[in-house]
Write a structure and sequence with these properties.
single chain, mainly alpha, 14 helices
Length: about 375
């Protein structure tokens, strides 16, 4: 029998055995995977932080290299760039903790404190609307009692949330520790990224053929560049939208500018459906305050989102996604169902990588067929 055929059969039997074993032991394997992820999670966080910070770090490093033109100062330029990028990150975190978050809490408390007044305004509007349609609110529908009960329960829900705040803080201490370790790991990765890259190239050259190692390097570069460009662009674009929303709400005198702007910025991290998700709670908040404000807010936010979609997004995020709208929607839905909010965010670059790899493979096959036919 042909040795190549025997080798193929043995490989087929080997992989078939692994697949059958995995199917019958899927729960055990999933537990192993989850435990492994928990163990290496700080390392994963560190790699993710390093990938996100790599592009701005390179920009700052180039600026320092222009000042220190000699080769012996290259290491110093990178260290100074790392110090600058992490100082900037610390300043952003401090700004969030000491400027935005206290005002956000104050706005939330103010909203909860005025809920009775807002309910009265909203109740009056509901009565006028139902009266115009000649519907008896008390007899035909039990809407008023349900709405009143739901709105009156908001303060108690808020109080319960505050009572559980200590427990939530304790639960997040472990996550904060992992993030701190991840930051330390990311610093080491960024300092030695040239050496790490050279080591990876050496390992690939030793283990694989030149063609295979070239393909693996292409995939690794594609993953790093896609995630870095997309996440950086998406975060910057969301921050710009939040700032524009805040400034616009102040100019037009809308209530709870900080609260609503933060909601819009966070939900805008999710492409396509994120802005729609953010509009719903924001409009409800203003609808309780004043129906006219809610209406004008809708007009304002539609104009702002058109400006963001046609002017800001293409320039900030650019072609880092490289996906048709249908594939973006599929990535958001599948990622959200699998991993929640985080899945919605990382689903886009993941789908973009898969899309590029499939497109390149198909184009290579078509090109090979054309060459063969010629």
């Amino acid at each position: 029998m042909d040795k190549k055929l025997i080798k193929t059969l043995l490989l087929f039997i080997f992989f078939a055995t692994i697949i059958v074993f995995a199917i019958f032991n899927i729960q055990t394997i999933m537990r192993w995977v989850i435990n492994l992820i928990v163990i290496v999670r700080p390392v994963i966080i560190g790699i993710a932080i390093a990938i996100i910070l790599n592009n701005p770090l390179c920009t700052i490093e180039r600026m320092f290299r222009k000042l220190f033109k000699k080769d012996k100062f290259k290491k110093l330029a990178r260290i100074l760039a790392i110090v600058c990028i992490y100082l900037l990150l610390i300043l952003i975190i401090v700004a969030l903790l000491w400027i935005i978050i206290p005002q956000l809490v104050q706005s939330t408390k103010q909203f909860v404190g005025n809920i009775e007044k807002y309910y009265a305004n909203f109740d009056d509007v509901i009565r006028k609307v139902f009266s115009w349609f000649k519907i008896d609110l008390e007899n035909d529908l039990d809407l008023q009692s349900k709405l009143q009960s739901g709105i009156r329960n908001i303060p108690s829900v808020y109080d319960n949330f505050l009572e559980k705040g200590l427990n939530i803080a304790k639960a997040t201490l472990g996550t904060l520790a992992e993030i701190f370790i991840g930051i330390v790991i990311s610093i080491y990765i960024l300092v030695d990224k040239t050496k790490i890259k050279a080591q990876i190239i050496k390992i690939l050259a030793a283990m694989f053929s030149k063609r295979t190692s070239k393909k693996i390097k292409f995939v690794l570069n594609l993953i790093i560049n896609t995630f870095s460009n997309f996440i950086n662009g998406q975060m910057l674009e969301s921050a710009i939208l939040g700032i524009l929303c805040f400034v616009g709400m102040l100019i037009f005198g809308f209530k709870y500018a900080i609260l609503i702007s933060v909601i819009m910025a966070i939900t805008n991290l999710i492409p396509m459906i994120g802005p729609i998700i953010g509009v719903v709670p924001s409009t409800i908040i203003l609808l309780l305050v004043s129906p006219s404000q809610a209406l004008w807010f809708l007009v304002f936010i539609i104009i702002l989102q058109q400006l963001e979609a046609n002017l800001i997004y293409p320039r900030v995020v650019g072609s880092s996604v490289g996906l048709p709208p249908l594939w973006i929607l599929i990535a958001v839905i599948v990622g959200g169902n699998a991993f929640g909010f985080l899945g919605m965010v990382i689903g886009i670059p993941t789908m973009s990588i898969i899309y590029v790899l499939i497109k390149n493979a198909v184009n290579d096959k078509i090109l090979a067929k054309n060459i063969t036919e010629l």
